[in-house]
Design brief:
The chain is of the alpha+beta class. It is built from 3 helices and 12 strands. It has one domain: Pnp Oxidase, Chain A, CATH 2.30.110.
Length: 160
């Protein structure tokens, strides 16, 4: 029994998530990236994470071929970075400070946390591919995260 796609989107939109930018390098060494909210930890031992990438995304074939990616977890002041990496048809890295990480993956300056991963599995799943990465390098900051829910950005306010 299939459910209505608009209802499905509305229900999923009620789930608050953090915001990440997944980055990689194309075969010529050019950095590519895209905003991704479908991110999760999978395992502590070994350290595994997953990201879900739409089959039509520009980065999809590059991620399949590259065998590596980085997850940049955005902080609450990085709304514009999230919007930029969600926009098609432009050089998303233009004007966005970044640097190569320990594994060479592009890391965004100011990210709350970064995870550099080696792809260990790519599972077809409907109109997406689930990429599972083993974390080979990581760094964490102390800023609050950028949140996304019901089509809007928000901030985390810890309870006292």
């Amino acid at each position: 029994m299939a459910i209505d796609s608009q209802l499905f989107k509305r229900v999923l939109g009620a789930f608050a998530s953090g915001v990440t930018v997944v980055t990689t390098l194309d075969p010529g060494g050019r950095p590519l990236g895209m905003t991704v909210s479908a991110f999760s930890s999978v395992s502590l031992d070994p350290p595994l994470v997953l990201v879900c990438i739409d089959l039509t995304a520009e980065c999809h074939p590059v991620l399949l071929a590259a065998g590596r990616f980085a997850v940049n977890i955005l902080g609450q002041d990085q709304r514009e970075v999230s919007r930029r990496f969600a926009t098609k048809g432009l050089d998303r890295f233009d004007g966005v400070p970044s640097r190569p990480g320990a594994t060479g993956m592009p890391l965004l300056d100011g990210a709350l946390g970064v995870l550099e991963c080696r792809t260990v599995a790519a599972h077809p799943a409907g109109d997406h591919t689930i990429f599972v990465g083993e974390v080979e390098a990581a760094a964490a900051g102390a800023e609050p995260p950028l949140l996304y829910c019901s089509g809007r950005y928000g901030r985390f306010s810890p309870l006292a």
